[in-house]
Design a protein that fits this description.
This protein has 288 residues and is of the alpha/beta class. The protein is 49% helix and 15% strand. It has an eight-stranded mixed β-sheet, sandwiched between helices. Helix 3 (76-86) packs parallel to helix 4 and helix 6 packs across helix 10 (244-266).
């Protein structure tokens, strides 16, 4: 018999990540009931048809009163607004978690929003696709993925263990770090690559005047490198705003690296240029 971790779970935002979480929870029998909450009833109905949730509602407060776990799976600002709305209605010892890509500022705000007796545990599953929506959600999305759980001195130990167990049960490998350390790390490994991909695509020209000849020579290298540039613009604007300092630091390092490569190419310094390529090969092998 499958172990029930929670009686009732409310997922706010049942798109790719929220929908995949719901599917994985239901597949593994981790809750008696999974409720989808959002603003668009048609999208929510799709989540029911996809098997991501049992029922849905656009009323943010109706279903949370007896929920054991609330998962905020919307854009950062929307998740914060949802938390503010539901905070007075949550039962004692309810656990609130999220899936956001930045943590330090969000965690600080959540500590102020949620009343005593409600336990927040920050989480960031490092999994996803450039496509959005429950139509591309998948119960296997988190298999083998890393989920970072950010703990602070105020994090409730029992709530932390429950959230860890949930992510382990849906297939993720959990790692712990502080919110500030999380943001420093992902600024380099996630946020910088996205901004670089956006820059690479925008180099090609304006939206209405793309050179038709470029389409003839777009290969897998360009597709693979720039795939993430197709992600939600709204979400990435919020990520840049909430992790500004760390992103600027990573961009500064990137600019220095680009300047070095520019100089070596301009000077036709083949020996040092080759060493730069070899260095990149070596570093990538160590971290991937």
């Amino acid at each position: 018999m499958k172990e029930k971790l929670f009686k009732k779970i409310c997922i706010f935002g049942v798109g790719l990540i929220g929908g995949s979480i719901g599917m994985a929870i239901k597949k593994n029998g981790l809750a008696n009931e999974v409720i989808g909450v959002g603003r668009d009833i048609e999208r929510l109905r799709k989540a029911v048809l996809a098997g991501a949730v049992d029922t849905v509602t656009t009323d943010y407060t109706a279903e949370v009163k007896d929920a054991d776990l609330i998962i905020l799976s919307m854009h950062i600002n929307s998740s914060l607004e949802a938390a503010k709305k539901i905070a007075p209605f949550l039962k004692k010892d309810a656990v609130v978690t999220d899936v956001g890509s930045t943590k330090e500022l969000f965690c600080k705000k959540m500590q102020k929003v949620l009343p005593n007796g409600i336990h927040f545990v920050g989480a960031h599953p490092i999994a996803g696709l450039e496509r959005q929506g429950v139509d591309v959600a998948n119960s296997e999305l988190f298999n083998g993925a890393v989920c970072v759980i950010t703990k602070t001195s105020k994090t409730n130990k029992n709530a932390l263990l429950k959230v860890k167990k949930l992510w382990n049960k849906v297939g993720a490998d959990v790692v712990f770090c502080s919110p500030s350390q999380h943001d420093k790390l992902v600024a380099l490994t996630s946020h910088l690559p996205h901004i670089a991909a956006v820059s690479l695509v925008n180099v090609l020209g304006k939206t209405d005047s793309i050179d038709r000849d470029l389409k003839l020579v777009v290969g897998n290298g360009f597709r693979d490198t720039t795939r993430i540039a197709s992600s939600s613009p709204e979400m990435w604007q919020e990520i840049c705003a909430t992790n500004k300092k760390n992103i600027l630091t990573s961009l500064s390092r990137f600019r220095k690296s680009l300047d070095r490569l520019y100089k070596l190419i301009a000077e036709s310094d083949s020996k040092k240029l080759t060493k730069e390529f070899e260095k990149a090969q070596s570093i990538r092998k160590r971290i991937i």
